[in-house]
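Students often ask what a holo structure prediction actually looks like on paper. The answer is less mysterious than it sounds. You provide the chain, you provide the ligand, and the output is a string of discrete structure tokens encoding the 3D arrangement of the protein together with manganese (II) ion.
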Amino acid sequence: MDPPLYDTLILSDLHLGAETSRAGDALRMLKENRFRRLILLGDIFADLNFRRLTKEHWKFLGYIRKLSNPKRQVEVIWVEGNHDHGLAEVMSHLVGVRVYQEYVWEYCGLRHLAIHGHQFDRLHAHNLRLNYVGTLLYLQLQKLDAKGKPLARLIDRLNTRWLRLSSKVASGALFHARLRKVDRIFCGHTHEAMHAQRDRHRYYNAGGWTDAKATYITISAEEGVQIHEYHGRSDGRVSARELNEADSTLTELADEPGLLEDGEYENIVS
Ligand SMILES: [Mn+2]
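The corresponding structure tokens follow.
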């Protein structure tokens, strides 16, 4: 039996060029699915250093180029992320894909919008620096973790930070959805798949492809929006509703107006 034909498949945060990029898995996932439109929702590249791209990473790009051939009848859309910034134009020529800051389309009488999501994370530059410092700290603490459990405490704090980032992007995206009068808004950036709703606006995050949990989104008339977790060839699908229930705390946080202050971020480092 043929796999279902989706109207749209959305993939974000592959971070090609990073050692953690799961380009091989992402390529397998694309080959196992059928879709009319593919949205690469930002941060497909980790940075501008092409020398860091492995053979697997180039294979992924080769497949995107192949898909964007008009004969394939797949529309490939590239939405720029913060890591992709400045790179997107070069790649649009190399890979032959059009690049958007945000992409709007109509499907099943509903307005859809795809945007990477760093636009709703005003501290993202700050966060990147913090990530780096956080990683160094983490590596040091692995050696030193002993009495007082500093490592466990640090992880707790980092988790809290990511939770806040997820809710902040969700909150900003839902506000943007209202301004742009769209029913469904799709983001990446946080590397955490989730679904949230406010009034008639629905927000979906595609997650990412750098962690143990790799996720993507599909849209079809029959099944609506689904968030899938990739498990290799026998793909266990998780519906958006199931995921929403599992992540209900995040959904509630999304309505919280309060955000972490700059000082609180600093405290994590100190
Ligand atoms: Mn990003």
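The first helix runs from residue 23 to 32.
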